Amino acid sequence: MSNTNDVFKDFHISSHAPLNGLKRSKCPTCKASRMYFCYTCYKYVENINIKDLPTIKLPFTVDIIKHPKELDGKSTAVHAALLAPNDVRIYSYPVFPDYSKVKDELLLIFPSPDSQPLEDYAKVKENSCLNPLKRATHIDTSKLTPLKQRRLQSDSTFDYEAQFNNKEGQLSSQNGAGLPKPNFTKVVMIDSTWNQVHGISTDERLKGIRAVELTEQSTLYWRRQHNSPDYFLATIEALHAFLRQYHEIFIGPYDHEYDDLLYFFKFFHEMVNRNKSKKPGKGHQKT
Predict the structure, then answer these.
(1) Residue in 235, 241, 219, 271 with CA at minimum distance from that of residue 66
(2) Nearest Cα to Cα of residue 38 among 7, 80, 82
(3) Mean pLDDT of each 10-residue bin along the chain, 287 residues long
(4) CA atoms of 252 and 179, how far apart (whole Å)
């Protein structure tokens, strides 16, 4: 069994001391008895001092569309709503906002056939005149899908940077730091199992929203989906991974600005592993 401290050693996550020794108490909204927070109202319980817990400000707003059969108590989407309360909203499918007039401002985190790397969703300099070969060679191909890598290698005239343009083909200057600006202002995520996700992703109301693919990384989630690959991330992991990439592309070197999004994820990861280690003969099993 992996040491929890080792798997989180590269993250800067706030102390869990405010959570230690707490007992169940009421949700301030629905009055149900909960531990730590209410997973239906997305509120902390009454005996937690909210000032002792981290709060994260995101560079954009996030809508999470949750499948109705996704168990509330097992969903990590609630972690995002608690830790970034001013920027995250959760909706239970089929109820979610009308995006028909703002689709050009949205980005859907979903590995669809049409999804692109995050680098694609940037505005470029109006006077950009790099030739096609230079456009191809300055791209970090390690973050591209195998298909796009082969395309760049086989076609030196492929104008990859042209895909940085927004839908109307308008060009925009870069920011003062010399970094590109994103051409979206809101992110949409789907919170469900892999078997459930297509019921939401194929909804007519989400068609036409540009999709982004994340750089593959292995999940640390203890509730692994049956027969799913390691890179199927929990919702809070996917949001954290996206924010890290966003920061590196559009803001600058990442300095753990969003690691506290994994605050409860790490806490429960440690709890699960402690409980497993206490069960004779169970310590060797995978989470």
Answers:
(1) 235
(2) 82
(3) 69 96 96 96 96 97 91 87 98 96 95 91 58 39 50 41 36 53 96 80 94 84 57 89 96 97 95 75 43
(4) 8
